[in-house]
């Protein structure tokens, strides 16, 4: 039964190929289409593709009288204020999430967040604000499913600052805790924060960071631990 | 019948093997020596942007050192409301426009930029350079026609260095370069 079916199939296949030989013009030998090379860097899909203007998403300004608008304005009035607002907005208790609207206000519409490549990830990742929010939310959900607290409190432990005109860069050492009163942080690292001033306010252009590794490698150098 | 079957299996196996060898699933771009070290990538940045009159920066070299979404943020012009955030292609368009305007005015578009001082902070796969620059029309010119500082954020993907972002400002009468950023 099985053999007969196979013979029939082979006959059909053979007939089809014979038909093809007589009717179709000669084709180049079959070659699979090579897959496009995979770039070693993964770009957040929310970042506009090259060629599209970066300023595509401009934040809608709040009315000047709005109390939230005043708070957002004071967040960006100085380098100290914008860095403080970055750490405050990302920190949150177990039942909450970062203050996304406050955090978004700090970043240029084209602003970037570049996390370190985790050892199990196949590619390095570049995010914009929306991409970071999505990844951060996924990470919190995963932590909760493992029975861990979704709380996250990040504070600045030291800062090296260079400024010239309308440009500043901060090498900002951070500590992360599950509760603000935890004696020891569960993670430490350094944020490289690039800032620009448009004459009215400060903006974060890019934050790239790396962490001390769980195996004790990549310790924070003493010079970046000084207050 | 068995023979047909095993031939079919063999054929399939051969095809699968051929497909595996001829379709690279994750071919990384060839190694770029410009990304090999922080010194190399910063040298490549200054090298690629410099060019004589009538020529252009080396866009291929410059594209090769920036992340695909790497940013260049020039100083805001007085008549601009907001910063212009550029990628390498956007920067190229801006440079071409500038060169065309200079040509109309009968001026040279030659530009030789060199680093004169650098303050570097590095931790793991992240570096930031506060890189003081001088721009000249000819490398031998005694004095630069423009100076400033580039804030350059660099990241390493585990294989090589990339420029994530360059933001700069220029020296103006009311914005002199501090002495600490002029030291070699």
Terminal CA distance of chain A: 83 Å
As a whole number of angstroms, the C-alpha radius of gyration of chain B is: 24 Å
What is the number of E strands of chain B?
A: 5
Strand order of the biggest β-sheet of chain B: 1-5-4-3-2
List low-pLDDT spans of chain B.
Answer: 7-27
Number of domains of chain B: 1
CATH architectural designation of the domain at 41-46 and 76-140 and 151-224 in chain A: Roll
What's the gyration radius of chain A in Å? Answer: 27 Å
Count, helices of chain B: 4
Coarse shape of chain A? globular
Tell me, rounded to a whole number, the average pLDDT of chain A.
83
Envelope shape of chain B: globular
The mean pLDDT of chain B is 86
Highest CATH level, the class of chain B: Alpha Beta
Assess the beta-strand content of chain B as a share of residues. 25-35%
Pick out its properties.
heterodimer; A: 227 residues; alpha/beta; Nuclear Transport Factor 2, Chain: A; seven-stranded mixed β-sheet; 26% strand; B: Nuclear Transport Factor 2, Chain: A; five-stranded mixed β-sheet
Q: What topology does this entry show?
A:
The complex is a heterodimer of chains A (227) and B (184).
Chain A: H1 2-23, E1 41-43, H2 67-75, H3 79-90, H4 100-106, E2 107-114, E3 124-128, H5 129-145, E4 153-164, E5 167-177, E6 187-197, E7 202-211
Helix pairs in contact in A: 3-4
Chain B: H1 2-22, H2 38-49, H3 59-65, E1 66-73, H4 88-104, E2 112-123, E3 126-136, E4 146-156, E5 161-170
Parallel strand pairs in B: 1-5
Antiparallel strand pairs in B: 2-3, 3-4, 4-5
Task: Describe the structure in your own words.
The complex is a heterodimer of chains A (227) and B (184). Chain A contains five helices and seven strands; from the N terminus they run αβαααββαββββ. Chain A has helices spanning 2-23, 67-75, 79-90, 100-106, 129-145, and strands spanning 41-43, 107-114, 124-128, 153-164, 167-177, 187-197, 202-211. Chain A has a seven-stranded mixed beta sheet with strand order 1-3-2-7-6-5-4. In chain A, β4 (153-164) and β5 (167-177) form a beta hairpin. Chain A is globular. By secondary structure, chain B is α+β, with helices and mostly antiparallel strands. In chain B, a hairpin with a 4-residue loop joins β4 (146-156) and β5. Chains A and B meet through α1, β2, β4, β5 and β6 of A and α1, β1, β2, β3 and β4 of B.
